[in-house]
Amino acid sequence: MIVASRPGQCVLGAAALGIATMPLWASAWHMQLVSAALVAALFALSLQVLVGATGLVSLAQAGFFGLGAYTVHLLGSPPVWITLPAAMLAAGVAALLIGPLALRTKGFFFLMTTLAFGQMLFFAFHDTPLGGGTDGLFIVRPSLGFTVSRAGRPAVFLLLNLGVLAIVYGGLCWLMSTMLGHALQGIRSNENRMAALGHNVQRLKLIAFVLAGALAGLAGHMSALTDAFVSPDLLGWHRSAEALLMILLGGIGALHGPILGAFALVAIQEAGSLLSDRPRLVEGVVFLAAVLFLRQGIAGWRLPWRTRP
Amino acid sequence: MLTGLIAQLLNGVQYGLLLFLISSGLTLIFGVMGVINLAHGSLFMIGAYLAFGVASLTGSLWLALPVAVLGGAVFGAVLERLLFRRFRTRAHLDQVLLTFALILLFEEGRSALAGNQFHSVPVPAVLDFSVPVIGGFGYSAYRLAVLAICLLVAAGLVWLIERTRIGSAIRAAAENTEMLNLLGFDAGRVHTLVFAGGTALAMLAGALAAPLQSVYPGMGDGFLILSFIVVVIGGLGSVAGAFWAALLVGLIDTLGKAYLPQAAGIAVCAMMAVVLLWRPTGLFSRT
Amino acid sequence: MRHVSRRAMLAGAALTAGLCRPAIAQGAPLKVGMMLPFSGTYAALGENIAAGFELLIAENDGKLGGRAVTLIRLDDESDPAKAPANVNRLTERDNVDVLLGTVHSGVVMALVQAAREKEIPLFIPNAGNVAATRDLCSPHVFRSSFSNWQPAYGMGRALAARGVKKAAWVTWDYAAGKESGEGFRDGLRDGGAEMTHLLTVPFPETNFQPVLAQISGLGVEAVGSFFAGGGAIQFVKDYAASGLRATIPLCGSGFLTEGVLKPQGAAAEGIQTALHYGDGLDNAKNVAFRTAFKAKTTRDADVYAVQGYDAGQMLAAGLTATKGDAAAAMAFAAAIRAARIDSPRGAFTLSASHNPIQTIWLREARDGQNKVIGIAAKDLADPGTGCKMAGA
Fold this sequence. Notes:
The complex is a heterotrimer. Chain A is mainly α.
């Protein structure tokens, strides 16, 4: 897992600063758009813990995302210092229950098992009265501890989402430098070798699965907080595939890949809807081009005078 | 109650057999080429739209069936040569994204060519009557015909795989591509053949289903997840496994919808989880 | 940290307040954001709603209440997960003064939320969720269509009036299905009959065999149902193919046969449904409307076109009273509540919770048309249970 280089970190930091100052110069709409991209980035980053770091491709991630979002509603919107840990806990516990089962399988079977478990979570909210029905519903926003005027919301949620993403990204950067991080990356490159070296591979994978689930729950929580709207579609496997796409667009080998990918995807969708009557066609073509030609993702782009690693 | 149950079992079997047509292609493509095709549900949809097109132009659904099979074979061969061939050795993630892009492109293509309306495809006049089952409940003759056609295709497929030279090549490829070369087969041709065959089966299923469930955008989505479940339960690359798994899934899904509608979706997924815990590579896998 | 975000928030507040709601300069065009499905399953409905609305504006020479109207189209793709962002596109990016939308009952929730929070008037030209004019009613939310409860209630009343004592309701397991089931139940009950079974199919499943196989064993005299689009086509065909119609007649909320009679073909012939519109209504307004709609679009008008047109009439009533100021919320809402809308379906007024009080017609499918054959429920109002309208 490549953590961004020194200059790369500077660029990311500058971008974060730019976003943080948006309330001073940008319109509410642009702040909301960036807010959505930040939540998407958080979601994709949670999946990168599995995909990029550990080499596990999961399609259950949207299930944990939606579970985090629905937690806010199911708890009846208490203040945010309750909903935030509760969302992470709910998604983390779900991952802890599903993980040991799903991780018995490998490769293609793992992909399919996680698809089935993800869809089970989807059906639990889509087909039963648990989450308030197929149509979704809008929820009472949890209190943030201070009053937020309606007009101030885009700015507040922008900064909140930026803060959460920065903390999670920083935390994961640190994690990748620890023994655990190295062990996870070891599994990605050669699972058998790690087992031979005496690592408990299953337990390491489970740790990654639960951590990824809890972080997806956090992303879902931020989405519910920002939009005040939850619907079963948040849990569908299409959303998981979309997160995988962000990782691929941004770069599977880099920790900051998903962040770049999320912003790229939001930009592509927005440009598609502004420029064309068929935004999904634009999306499809871009995806196809990305998977055919952009093997290293955006993070793999190098200025022409620098050699590829 | 008993009448209801008999009718439900019949429904479950018919639904399961249709599911088999879709998943047999999927399982062969996985088994032989190692490619995950999320766009397989879209191929089913394309088959249904093709049937709608042919049926409304010529007035005959019977003509639509061979057209779907031949069209599917050609379309599948082209897709394999142009795209899937390059992705055989790529990571699963890349395959997921390639086929996700194809879903978007197929949906948009369908929207541009055929619009977004629902279309109904009439049942062929010869079969437009009900066969009485016990106790006044009629069962559509067309459904029975679909049941029979699916059984015929299944039998033909098993014969092809188990008894013919090309079948042994496919079985060999499912085990190991190297072996193909040792046996003197051109691996590339076998792959094209398998992908073309899988596409033809999915499009045939779509054409058969068109009069049963109407033709509409995204109609293959529900089948996609179910057929993946079938493939996993049956074991990768096993046509016989796909057959029994499809019947099982069809029955559980149908009975679930009839008697416990809120849990039907969960039940099928849960069954797959249980099977995988018991046999992590599927019920009929050889390993 | 909190200090920073608060300051930033205040700055943001000042900025958004300036951008979000520009002072109404008289003469500046009124922006109407039309958030409708222009792609996907409901695209045809979205197009007809838009065309009906545009027809009304064209009839008024492009002006309502003396103010020019600009229309902004946005395709909502009938995707609830994208709805909050799509609503923001209209309210924040395009700064619309009025919202019109939509068909999908999940997507409309995001619109209702925006209307309530941002106090932008919203006209709902289709989605029938009862909540929008019950617990979630608002002075800023108006509906020109129906509540899911209404047509099904009419059907229940009509069945009871014919002497049916026991009936079942078959529908998709989602809000619109269940709410219409409640209407059917209430209609039967008020007519002295009973809804004995509610059968559901997971949405949007079109494999109806499991549910059809149960019907003959229920001991009911009639089956009512709510399905729309492809589900409606398939259900009516499968019902006919199962041979049930000989013993247990099928009826339903009008959407069962609305816009889908052609593909349903002979299977639909003779099916009775109840809706607030139908073919063969001979009032002068309807005749004129159908002629004008056909001339404008070359399509035949349908219930969706009427709902779009009437949304325009309601907006016009409000704007006329406030001289073009849609933000004068109280006067605007009061004028619309007081207005008598001269609709092609027959004139109607709005209830206290802003849902039409309208006649539900009994129709029968004959030769590809839903012919009005009588009245199922005259001047029917949705109960509006739980509506507490702040400041109205």
